[in-house]
Amino acid sequence: MRVLIIGHREVPQVLPMAECVEVMAAMFGVLGRGEALLPLRQIVWQPDRRGALGLMPAYLGAPGALGAKVVSVFPGNASTRYESHQGAVLLYETGNGRLLALVDAGAITAIRTAAVSALATRLLARPEAGELAILGAGTQAAMHLAAMRAVRPIRRVRVWSRDPAHAQRFAEREAARHGLPVTAVATGAEAVAGAEIVCTVTGATAPVLRGEWLAPGAHVNAVGASVPPFRELDTAAVVRSRMFVDRRESALHEADDFRLPQQEGAIDATHIRGELSDLVLGQVQGRTAASEVTLFKSLGLALEDLAAAQHAYERAVAAGLGTWVEFSGEREA
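The structure assignment produced for this chain is given below.
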C-alpha cells in the first residue's frame, strides 16, 4: 500500500491561503449540519510543562475523511531554530480505513489557523477595515497578514512583539513581501490604537491586549492562547466584545481568554454568541452595528487540519507532488 508524504515546502503549493479560506468555510458548514465528529483534543504535558504532545482526531462527513493530527507544542521554541508546533496530520479514507497521506503538521497548522481567522474576519469585520494590528511577530503573524489581505483591503500594519528586534525584522521583511507600510512599534497599546482589525498571535500567559485600547468597531482575532495557562486578552476586552468561537465546547474547556473572565463573574456562557458554523450557515447574526467590537476566539480544531490535509492531498496527487512510500496495510495474496 502506498502512502503520500507531503512535506513542509510542498504544503503551501497545494494549500494556497485563498483556497484554504474556502476549504474552511465548507468544513464549518459540514460541522454545522452535524456531519462531523470532533472529540476534545488529548494533551500530554511534560512534567516541567516545557512542552506537550497533542492528539487531535476527527471525522469529516463531506468529502469523507478520517484522521488525526499528532503534534508537539513547545512555546519556548521562539528563541530557538525550531517551530513551536511540529508533527504530522494522518489522513485516512473512510471506506477501508487506508492511510492515504502524512502531511507536515507545522505547515498545515500555520495556513489553516490563519485561514480560519480570515473566515471569521470576512464574517465579522467591517467591509472597509484596512488598519491592521498584529501582536506577535512569529510564523502566525506572517500567516495572518497574508490571510487578512485575502479578505480585507489592508492598507497599513503595525506590529508589536515582546522582542523589539523580532518585530523590526518582521516589519522589514513583510513590508517588502507585501508592498505595504508595516511598522514595528514599542507597545501593544500603540499597535492597537485605531486599528480596525487586531490579531493576537503570541505565546503569552498574561494579557497582551486590553479592552481599553480597542477602537469602536474593531474586530479581534484571538489566536495564540489555545490551552491553559495561555491567555492574551484581559477581562475588559472580552466583556466589551460580541464573541464567537470555532467550537463552544472547546472554548468552555480550553480557552483561558474566556474561562478566567467567567470565573471572575464578569461573563457567563451566554457571552459566546455563536460558533463559526452558525455564522457560515446564517443561523446567528454576526456584527450588529458599525461601532460594535467583535471577537473571534480561535482554539484550533482537528477538523480544520483534516479538511486542509484532504485538500492538500487531492491537489498534490493531481500535481504530482509529494513522495510515495510503501506501507503495510494490504493482505498478502
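Interim note for the steering committee: The mean pLDDT is 96. DSSP finds eleven helices and 16 strands in the chain.
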